[in-house]
Specification:
Elements lengths: L1 E4 L10 H9 L5 E4 L8 H9 L4 E6 L23 H20 L4 E4 L12 H9 L6 H39 L2 E5 L10 H10 L6 E6 H9 L5 H8 L3 E6 L1 E3 L3 E4 L8 H4 L9 E3 L7 H14 L6
Parallel strand pairs: 1-2, 1-10, 2-3, 3-4, 4-5, 5-6, 6-7, 7-10
Antiparallel strand pairs: 8-9
């Protein structure tokens, strides 16, 4: 199922139906309702849904945004936070999102699980800047990367346990609402879970059909570009747990959410790991132009007709 995320045009609209109509005009009929949505758009989205204009492939947490958060901030509240109030608020907002996902007959809910408390400016952003300067083979880069991995490994177990605890609670409601919890791969190595933790997480819930893995092509490619993993090899290892994915391209080394075919990803290598019929969602930056997206969709149709609705 090919679908399109509302993150592309959400900020340009005050009316939810107009937002839906703009996506439909691109040539998509399945839509993922994404984070950053103000509650005022819900009536228009409901109107479009009830009129049969679109089907909702899935929802991205938090939907809608917490009323007290004035910007698009899906990580405003984390299950891993050291603040108990933040963890409580994250759970409340997720339960509300699950209820709305069921209302829109969504198949899945994409989740960010949180992070470990390391400053990205000192770690992921520093490594990215070194790669951009062509220093990925320098001893200084290799040392910085190893030090980063060791530091994260030392402090991560507490935050991993908080993520597992949150999922243990949420999966009960997910089953009740009939919505799969899709734990997303993230772009920063500070985020939870990393790939080793993701494998452990999926093994922990291996007998529960209401939790699975959500692959973000761009996020994983960013870590591939830092030498933290190999993108195809990672897909090979996680393949049994794949629910679907967010697809967007990457301009070297770290500009993601580009339109497909405008960057460095080689889709014929990556897409075969995904089950036929699973949701593949175009999740694009609001800066991407309408004609660019339409042209890319035509290319997609030619190369991957089996991935069309």
């Amino acid at each position: 199922m090919l679908s399109f995320s509302s993150c592309w045009n959400n900020a340009r609209h005050s009316d939810g139906e107009a937002m839906i109509d703009e996506i439909l005009a691109l040539g998509f009929r399945h839509i993922e309702l994404s984070h950053g949505m103000t509650i005022t758009k819900l009536p228009g989205i409901r109107k479009a849904f009830q009129a049969g204009k679109f089907t909702c492939s899935g929802v991205h947490n938090f939907f809608p945004s917490p009323v007290e958060v004035m910007i698009d901030a899906p990580d405003a509240y984390e299950y891993t936070s050291h603040r108990s109030w933040d963890r409580k608020r994250a759970m409340e907002m997720t339960l509300q999102t699950l209820e709305l996902a069921a209302e829109f007959r969504a198949n899945y809910l994409v989740l960010h699980m949180g992070s470990v408390p390391l400053n990205p400016k000192k770690y992921t952003k520093r490594l990215t800047a070194m790669v951009a300067d062509g220093k990925q083979h320098d001893p200084s880069f290799i040392k910085a990367k190893i030090d980063f991995v060791k530091k994260r490994e030392k402090i991560a177990p507490l935050y991993y346990s908080r993520a597992i605890d949150a999922l243990e609670q949420l999966v009960v409601k997910a089953e009740e609402f009939g919505v799969i919890l899709a734990v997303e791969s993230r772009s920063r190595f500070e985020d939870m879970p990393n790939e080793r933790e993701m494998l452990h997480l999926q093994e922990h819930f291996k007998d529960n059909p209401w939790i699975g893995y959500w692959h973000d092509f761009g996020h994983v490619q960013l870590k591939h570009n830092l030498g933290l993993l190999d993108h195809p090899d990672w897909l090979r290892r996680i393949q049994p747990h794949i629910i679907g994915g967010h697809i967007h391209d990457v301009e070297w080394p770290a500009r993601d959410h580009r339109t497909p075919f405008c960057g460095t990803l080689h889709y014929p290598t990556l897409l075969p790991f995904f089950p036929q019929g699973c949701p593949i969602i175009w999740e694009l930056s609001p800066t991407r132009k309408t004609e660019e997206i339409k042209n890319a969709l035509e290319v997609w149709k030619r190369f991957f007709p089996e991935r069309m609705p």
